[in-house]
Amino acid sequence: MGSLCSSYITNISSSSTSNESLSPSFESSKYLQLKHFHYLSTLGEGSFGKVILVRRKSNERLYAIKLINTDRLIDLRKREYAMFERQVLVEFQNPFIVKLHHIFESSGKLCFVLDFMQGGNLGFHLKKHNRFSNRVVAFFAAEVIVALEILHKKEFIYRDLKPENILLDIDGHIKLADFNLSTTIEDLNDTICGSPEYAAPEVLNGEIQGIELDFWGFGVLLYHMLQGTTPFRANSYFDICKNILLSKYSFTSNFDKNAIDLISKLLVANPKERLTNHMAIKNHKFFADIDWASVEARNLESPIKLRVKNPLDLKYFPKKKYPTMTFSAQNELDVNQNDQSSYSQFSDFSYNSEIN
Q: Which of 14, 159, 236, 353 sits most deeply, having the most CB atoms within 10 A of its CB?
């Protein structure tokens, strides 16, 4: 955390103002706790923890909070992944990337406070429609390639492109999320990561991975959106990997010649021979009807019309029952008294967009 933030926290702690009465703009992430939010719903769950919908008590705004169990972060690799997600979200304040507002530790959870994306994820809509038309695919693929280009220009590799990580705002525009598998080009490694059906051959072979990895994922995404299934689908993890390594996939009548040509240039097993040029992709005939200046300005109208009844309408999220959660001041006090080292262990994660 920068020196400005450090001095800001020092001034707050030396003030006679209580933590509870701090104004929203003056409230440091050091003092934020789950008790400062009303729990509304659980949006999803994964191996990392869960994502919940909350309303902040001080300003009544809705947020999504990604909760990561801090006991998972004892593993240095998992801590590294979480720290890298922080780095990406802090560095890229961009409309194509989900906005981070705060990070704080509370009740044994590392809490990433993010914009609530009421449109759900692209995977939800793909399942609902079974597959998308060329026009719809061109729109979403155009926004995705612009988002990837933003990352690649600063030598970041996404590494986990899939429909579930592509969130939609209420206007139907995309934002990339879930950066815990991302890395920089200078930190290239041979780690197996990401979703099996989107895994590139170099990942399965344990080879050094570069930005070529994201272009493979982009090719799989194009196929997935047009066909409704992934190109290397199979009944077992072993067979999926086998199909990927053998480049065993085929096209159906759902693909026109331009889609086939672009996907075939992206799903090339040898990363050195794969299409990895953003401008060449933008100039491809598949995107002939796309106005790229309008894409970058987010001025194109989304082909998916999202209609919600109110700000709490969760119609674009899976209807799955999760246990409810309660945040109480007493619970927070109990945790803090029992684990005085909690904040110091995770203070390097702390972030407040209103200060930093």
A: 159
- The DSSP secondary structure of 156-168, one letter per residue, reads EE-----GGGEEE
Other CB atoms within a 10 A radius of the CB of residue 334 amount to: 12
User: Which residues, other chains included, contact 80 with Cβ-Cβ below 8 Å and sequence gap of 6+?
Assistant: none
122-296 fold: Transferase(Phosphotransferase); domain 1 (1.10.510)
Return the sign of the alpha-carbon dihedral for residues 313, 318, 320, 326. negative
Phi, psi of 31 (to 5 degrees): -95, -15
Distance CA 263, CA 267 (A): 6
* pLDDT tens track for 223-255: 999 999 999 999 999 999 999 999 999 999 999
pLDDT tens readout for residues 49-74? 789 999 999 999 999 999 998 888 88
3-117+318-352 — its CATH code?
3.30.200.20
- How far apart (Å, rounded) are the C-alpha atoms in residues 150 and 94? 9
- 3-class secondary-structure state, position 312: coil
Q: Which residues are catalytic?
A: 160
| Structure tokens, 48 | 């990392």
**pTM, whole model, 2 decimals?**
0.83
Would the annotation count 305 as a binding residue? no
Give CA–CA dist 181/194, Å, rounded.
7
Do 220 and 197 touch, CB atoms closer than 8 A? yes
DSSP state at residue 46: E
pLDDT band of 330, cuts 50, 70, 90: very low
